[in-house]
Amino acid sequence: MWSRRGRSLLLLFFLLFLLALPRLSSPQAFKETGESQEEITPALREEFREAEEAYREGEEERALILLKGFLKDHPFSPLSDDALLLLGRIYQERGEHEEAISSLSSFLRRYPSSPKLPEAKLALAKSYLATGREGLALGMAHELLPFCKERPELQLPLFLLLGEAYDRAGEPLLAISWYQKALEFASFEERASIKERMIALLDRELDPGVYWEVETTYPNTFLSLYSRLKLAEIYLRRGEQKKAELILKGMKEEAEREGFQDFYADLWSRVKKGRGEVLLGCILPLSGRFRSLGEKVLRGILLGAGIFGPPSYPHVKLLIRDSGGSGEKGREAYRALRKEGVEAIIGPLLPQVAVAVLEEAEGDLPLLVLAPQARVEEKCAFYLALDLRSQIEELLEYACDRLGKTRFVIFYPNTPYGRESQRIFEELVPAYGGEVVAKATYGKDQTDFGDLIKGVFGKASSLGAVADALFVPDDYRRVCLLVPQLRFHEVEGLQLLGLSGWNSPRLTELCGRYAEGAVFTGGFSPDLPLPQVRNFKVAYEEAFGSSPSFLEALGYDAVRMILKVPEDDLCFELLTIRDFQGVTGIEGFLTTGEAVRRPYLFQVSDGKIHPLLPPF
User: Fold this and answer.
1) Residue 595 phi/psi, 5° resolution?
2) Kind plus residue range of the DSSP H or E element containing 605
3) Among residues 598, 579, 583, which one has the least CA distance to residue 534?
4) Among 69, 70, 187, 571, whose CB has the most other CB atoms within 10 angstroms?
5) What is the pTM of this model?
6) Contact predicate 181/172, CB 8 Å
7) How many CB atoms lie within 10 A of CB 610?
8) Which residue has the higher pLDDT, 213 or 573?
9) Is residue 521 within 8 Å of 600, Cβ to Cβ?
């Protein structure tokens, strides 16, 4: 029997339970499951349709605003899952992968039973891969494999993603196996593209064991043939002519049938002719104030030439001359190296020395010029440095097309570099649908930017009416003096844009939170999730015990490009290079000698510098 006290307590608990029922049935109770508490009314459907229409018409910015508003006003409607998924896709297409990851992860948490779960997971895996998180991308992709039986349309994009993820993770055999699976579901046009990916993968400097494995795993295919050609190339580099000849014999017709006749012909000519020692000259500043820069480049050259690290074939002998940062010493070095009979010269590194040497050059000895902003009409000069125009083109394409920025302010130093950057930016910006609404210059040693900022934005600007992005073509040290002063003068919300001078690990250290979201160009980072960069970084760290920078990478690419081509008429042969996978992004040369490359883009996110790899 219940006591009077017990009955009273039971009645109290029952009343409390009744009071809690409305809370348990509130929308908050369904937040994590994604269950709907709102009917699909014509007005609700029209609101979502408007966002979809904006997206279809290419008005991404408007679509984002509408979708965010929809999710805020209707967080638990039956259309919220569609809105959240579309939001993630738009962010992904704009290259804003961190935002895409946030939206898509939210979708997975809230709608774990949604029929659109596979699309969300595939999109999330793509954004993981784009941000260098290969492990997360692979994990998400493997979770999708069981869905392929019921959803065959997932197979091609999923297999391609797995191939790319394993490639970036340094697993070429697994990458090839997934690309091979993708070929089974691809159209004729798609097959050509996938084959190009596989050939590009095999074109890297892989271990010979990888090529033997591919050759035996995929017999009587283009993969087997190309692997044998790559093995012959490796034997030639090692000086093992007989082994290369044994592989190449009888392959001519097969190579012609698969479209590899040029590669075969080049290898066969090298077998018959052979190539002995390669004598290369270097003109670098190895004394004076620029000594440290010259030494960085030299370390990259030594690694590429096989003097430190894995040996190269043909054997390389280097003749190194110190320019001391002087144009006259550069001329003397050029004359001395020419007399010594070098096949090509790497350098100069400094612009004033490069101009002097180019004026001295006779036009029949290849010069692989490393100096930026040094151009002289010369038929056998090749320019490896990052050029301003390609950097600004890449930056504008991303800022305008992906970020939707159209109104730019330029703050630039009163230096030749700063003035030329400002001129090119103003020249190019209309083609991308933007305009320069204001510009101002400052002294190269200036530290106080208050008057500059107030002159453009006023004491407390209404920023939306003035500009949405600020371009500063300067060194990271000057940038980190400028950007905190923007906040001090109440100028906020600007998208910060810069060139390769920003690309330093010290940027985030000196700028702190003021650099958050900044986007800038660069020629190299040891953290780029690319196989050729990973291999170079490992070899460099083993040889020198430190991490490489752009200058070491530039020297490495220079010598590797020379060794890639036959020694006959190097001035011509260097122009034939295509699809060279340089660690600095270089692919080859135009007929003018300008490097063909797409500069890398980087963004500061969560206080760290992250690469933005295409597709954005």
Assistant:
1) -70, 140
2) strand 600-605
3) 583
4) 70
5) 0.65
6) no
7) 19
8) 213
9) yes
Pairwise CA distance, residues 84 & 106, whole Å: 8
Q: To which residue do tokens 């029952």 refer?
A: 14
Determine contact, residues 495/405, Cβ cutoff 8 Å.
Answer: yes
State both tokens at 27: 């929308």
Residue 319 has pLDDT above 80, yes or no: yes
Asked if residues 353 and 526 have their Cβ atoms less than 8 Å apart, the reply is no
Task: Output DSSP code: residue 520.
Answer: E
Longest dimension (CA), the chain: 115
**Identity of residue 398:** Y
Sequence-separated (6 or more) residues with CB below 8 Å from residue 434 = 396, 399, 400, 405, 406, 407, 408
Per-residue model confidence (pLDDT) at position 204: 82
Residue 379, amino acid:
K
> Cα separation of 165 and 529, whole Å?
10
How big is the chain, counted in residues?
616
CA distance to 47, 505, 518, 536, per residue, from 602 (Å): 36, 11, 8, 20
Give the burial class of 429: count Cβ atoms within 10 A of its Cβ; 0-12 exposed, 13-18 middle, 19 or more buried: buried
What stretch of H or E contains 409? strand 407-413
Q: Which residue stretches of 259-350 are H helix?
A: 261-273, 291-304, 327-340
Does residue 2 have a pLDDT over 80? no
Q: Determine contact, residues 379/356, Cβ cutoff 8 Å.
A: no
Are the beta carbons of 126 and 161 closer than 8 angstroms? yes
How would DSSP label each residue in 370-399?
--TT-----TTEEE-SPPHHHHHHHHHIII
The angle at the Cα of 444, spanning 441 to 446, to the nearest 5 degrees, equals 80
Token pair belonging to 215: 């050759």
Instruction: Using DSSP, state whether 280 is helix, strand or coil.
Output: strand
Peptide bond into 615 cis (omega under 30): yes
Token pair, residue 604, equals 């500061």
Cα angle 178, 181, 183; round to 5 = 115
**Looking up tokens 């350098």, which residue turns up?**
347
| Residue 292 tokens, joined | 């440290």
What is the identity of the amino acid at 486? L
CA gap 330, 284 in Å, rounded: 8
Burial of 249 (0-12, 13-18, 19+ CB in 10 A): exposed
Token pair listed for 477:
């040290």
Give the 3-state DSSP-derived string for 411-470, with helices as H, strands as E and coil as C. Answer: EEECCHHHHHHHHHHHHHHHHHCCEEEEEEEECCCCCCCHHHHHHHHCCCCCHHHCCCEE
14-72 pLDDT, tens digit per residue, is: 443 344 434 333 333 333 444 445 677 888 889 999 999 999 998 989 999 999 999 99
AA identity, residue 377: E
Q: What is the mean pLDDT of the chain?
A: 87
State whether residue 471 is helix, strand or coil.
Answer: strand
With bands split at pLDDT 50, 70 and 90, how would you rate the model's confidence at 568?
low
Q: Which two tokens stand for residue 491?
A: 């100028």
Contacts of 150 (CB under 8 A, 6+ apart): none
Neighbours of 468 (CB within 10 A): 19
Residue with tokens 């029949």: 364
Q: Name the CA radius of gyration of the chain, rounded.
A: 29
pLDDT tens digits for 172-186?
Answer: 999 999 999 999 999
Looking at residue 273, its pLDDT comes to 67
